[in-house]
Amino acid sequence: AILPGLTAWRRRKHEQSTVDDWRYQVTWTPLPALPLATLSGTWLVVTAEGEGRTGQGDTGDDVVVALRAHGARVRRVALDESCLDRAVLASRLADAVETDEVDGVDEAGGIAGFVSLLAAAEEPCRAYPELAAGTALGVALVQALADTGAEAPLWCLTRGAVSTGRSDRVTRPVQAQTLGVGWTAALEHPRFYGGAVDLPETLDERGGQRLAAILAGAGTGAGTETTGGEDQLALRTSGVLARRVVRAPAGDREPRRTWEPRGTVLVTGGTGTLGPHVARWLARQGAERIVLVSRRGMAAPGAAELVDELAGQGTEATVTACDITDREALAALLDRLTAEGHSPRTVIHAAAVIELHTLAETDMAAFARVMHAKVAGARNLDELLADAELDAFVLFSSVAGMWGSGQHAAYVAGNAYLAALAANRRARGLTATSVHWGIWANELGIGRVAPDQVRRSGLEFMDAGLALTGMRRAMDDDETVLAIADVDWDRYYPVFGSVRPTPL
Ligand SMILES: NC(=O)c1ccc[n+]([C@@H]2O[C@H](COP(=O)([O-])OP(=O)(O)OC[C@H]3O[C@@H](n4cnc5c(N)ncnc54)[C@H](OP(=O)(O)O)[C@@H]3O)[C@@H](O)[C@H]2O)c1
């Protein structure tokens, strides 16, 4: 009797150490104080036209003041929605580049760099209400710069999009979409993509100095000389911090709690590829009731069989057709569940529309389509369940939404938003866990990415059971943002970093 017990213990230990190797988190490391620097040349500051900006400085005035104070000549370009058409935007940029007058001085010539404050336009785009105006214009900006063969670096500025530590809150998760667009641009357009800086709410003199110091070293390619090639930065009162993805083993640490699948578990995307595996796993964890949601509902292939299978495991499962991007439809579903005494205690948001496009190739409609289920679905769940008593609010994201991936433009931006939303919920005192998956077992990823291509990239397929063991641990620890990915870095980084040696 001892031997089987020992074998099971050994297997569990082995599984735990395997999954431990798959865990990654984001940290921020302070950079040494940057030297005072003077900017030279003309900088084009790009903003979005329109009302609805919140917070001081979101018009970019403080940035313009800072750039000028440190020697830059500044031209401002305000984009309206006609600029969603990359050709219109390209010609708007060409006009701005060719203008001779800068700051009242005759100044023909080239542009030293582009500074985009588009992220601040968080309001919905009129033409594509699924997208924030700034996100959409940001995509068009990268496209237009690529189309016009831009050489000068593009720097994207956000505010409240990242948390560099416990007391630093994500206040504007929507702006993290811009960071996601930037990660893709870094891989697909290394020639002109400079990097991103998350600014404090207001840019004081010290902050302005630091921003100037970052941009002063900007050449073409990754980051700037002054920051040692760092291209993902946060500017805080303490100084300048650079983003890092680090291993995050749980080791022998005791979990913070024991999550239980009490009451009802709501799984969006429940009839997709991963959803049924999650549902079976929930049943194995002892879930009483699972509500699986997708647009097709019971019409999704295998839905009826899955319900029967779960019933055989002692779990009452229902499959409901609901488009979670439709706030009213989702509210009606949640009201019905509450009326039945089944309001969810755990939410797992795995709904997604997954299409892979490069930034240059994507059209705005496709970009919006991919963002919609992830972003609007998460936002609707967040808002409608704001007062609910939840044990877990798990968002299914991807490593693409933690450190980027070429050819995944909208997917990266949507997943980056999920991480930021999780951090923002934490800042509001609510539970949230954004799990950034690597790729699940071969048969589960079928159809989208060729297995050989995945292996060559250095991502290893993860066994579903082990992946879910990793998720369980993240839920027991009530983690906020965690990647669970089997990465062979010796193969992954040379491919990932080949176009641009970005520090990860
Ligand atoms: N598979 C992987 O290896 C992998 C790796 C990394 C991350 N992930 C993440 O894990 C999640 C699940 O991935 P998957 O591979 O299972 O994707 P999938 O097979 O494409 O399934 C997505 C599911 O979402 C549903 N859905 C889409 N739009 C919806 C909407 N508006 N309202 C309600 N349901 C909607 C789909 O059903 P209908 O079409 O019927 O609505 C489907 O059930 C995604 O967030 C993905 O990014 C997966």
TrEMBL record:
The keyword Lipoprotein does not apply. Pfam families: KR. GO terms for biological process: fatty acid biosynthetic process. GO terms for molecular function: fatty acid synthase activity. This is Modular polyketide synthase. The keyword Phosphoprotein applies. It comes from the Bacteria. Residues 263-443 form the Ketoreductase domain. Keywords: Phosphopantetheine, Phosphoprotein.
